[in-house]
Design goal:
alpha/beta; Rossmann fold; 7-stranded parallel β-sheet; 7 strands; 14% strand
């Protein structure tokens, strides 16, 4: 059996109704895992889950709400018969110059990216640790960003929230190890991927006057990337599948760059 085979594993992916999250859900399912897509877009999440085939499901989740997390974890565990993979992918990005940052935009990004991920770690650990509702150990994978490792203009608050995800990942891994939870905690740093969010970011850069056009912003990102291209959804999804699999059994508390070398 391949060490990348996830047959028998049960995963919850936040923000899995579209973009990177959908790609991650599909990659995990292709590797054999049963997947529940947790998203605010309940109908879209259910449609994506149905497209994965039998044995998958969807739950409503507002990552900023504790009660919603409790219900989503319980729903995923019930639908799948257990839970041993949690992917904290849901996130928002609001582009602003530091001289123009708004309290509302700061709070929105902190709520979804930091609070949402923190609650995902909390409830993932509580479910998978000994004595938890699932209780068989497992893996938590958080989604940070190359923005946590470079100084790219226009995304100061977003960058700060993704740096916070890196720190929380490492602390959670240490605590889980010290307390014998049997749960590995890692994160990935995706580079720019032309999803709806990634394309919107390039447009924002032009509108903020940081680049002459969205195309110029993209060209700059490519020029800073040794691999010479933007990322693809499958690049990030495959890295998440690796971290979820037994191939990464001794990988714990790390941030894995999946950015073509941009953040090195």
């Amino acid at each position: 059996m391949s060490v990348f085979d996830l047959t028998g594993h049960r995963a919850l992916v936040t923000g899995g109704a579209q973009g990177l999250g959908e790609g991650m859900a599909r990659a995990l399912a292709t590797a054999g895992a049963s997947v529940v897509i947790a998203d605010l877009q309940t109908d879209t999440a259910a449609t994506v889950a149905a497209s994965l085939g039998d044995g998958h499901g969807a739950v409503h989740l507002d990552v900023t709400d504790e009660d919603s997390w409790t219900a989503a974890i319980d729903g995923a565990r019930t639908q799948l018969g257990g839970l041993d993979i949690v992917v904290n992918n849901a996130g928002v990005e609001i582009s602003e110059l530091m001289t123009e940052i708004s309290v509302a935009a700061i709070r929105a990004q902190l709520d979804v990216n930091v609070l949402g991920t923190a609650l995902g770690i909390k409830h993932g650990l509580r479910a998978m640790r000994p004595g938890g509702a699932a209780g068989q150990g497992g893996v938590i994978i958080n989604v940070a960003s190359v923005a946590a490792t470079i100084a790219f203009p226009g995304i100061g608050i977003y960058s700060a929230t993704k740096s916070a995800i890196d720190r929380m990942t490492r602390v959670a891994a240490m605590e889980a190890g010290k307390l014998g939870y049997g749960v590995r905690v890692n994160c990935v740093y995706p580079g720019l991927v032309p999803t709806e969010m990634g394309t919107g970011l390039a447009t924002d850069m032009a509108e903020l006057g940081l680049f002459g056009s969205a195309e110029e912003a993209v060209e700059t990102v490519v020029s800073l990337t040794p691999s010479g291209r933007l990322g693809e959804v499958r690049d990030i999804a495959d890295a998440v599948t690796f971290l979820a699999s037994d191939a990464a059994r001794f990988v714990n508390g790390v941030g894995l760059p999946v950015d073509g070398g941009m953040g090195m």
